[in-house]
Structure to design on (102 residues):
């Protein structure tokens, strides 16, 4: 087997491993965000999601409720009630650990 074909296989395994780890991180952060989310009717909390994007090289965590950005950042009439940022910031070490950084 040529060195190139062997290297290609190693990179494919690394890509799969990274994608799997990103899936775990996304699920972890989305769960944490649900715990931090302000709840009135529960709609926004039920729309918190995660997805692995960019061919397995990144993960997106968000909320699809149309008003979630106003809850996260506040408005001039209502103070911010962040749930996404704290889900990441308060779990930085766990995220790094899942990704193999610690």
């Amino acid at each position: 087997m040529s060195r190139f074909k062997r290297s290609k296989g190693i990179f494919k395994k690394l890509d799969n491993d990274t994608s799997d780890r990103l899936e775990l991180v996304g699920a972890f952060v989305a769960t944490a965000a649900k715990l931090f989310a302000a709840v009135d009717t529960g709609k926004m909390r039920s729309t918190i999601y995660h997805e692995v994007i960019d061919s397995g090289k990144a993960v997106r965590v968000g909320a699809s409720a149309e008003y979630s950005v106003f809850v996260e950042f506040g408005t001039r009439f209502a103070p911010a009630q962040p749930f996404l940022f704290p889900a990441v910031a308060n779990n930085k070490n766990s995220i790094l650990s899942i990704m193999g950084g610690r």
In short: The chain has one domain: 3-98. The helical segments are 3-36, 43-46, 68-73, 84-89, 92-98. The beta strands are 48-53, 58-63.
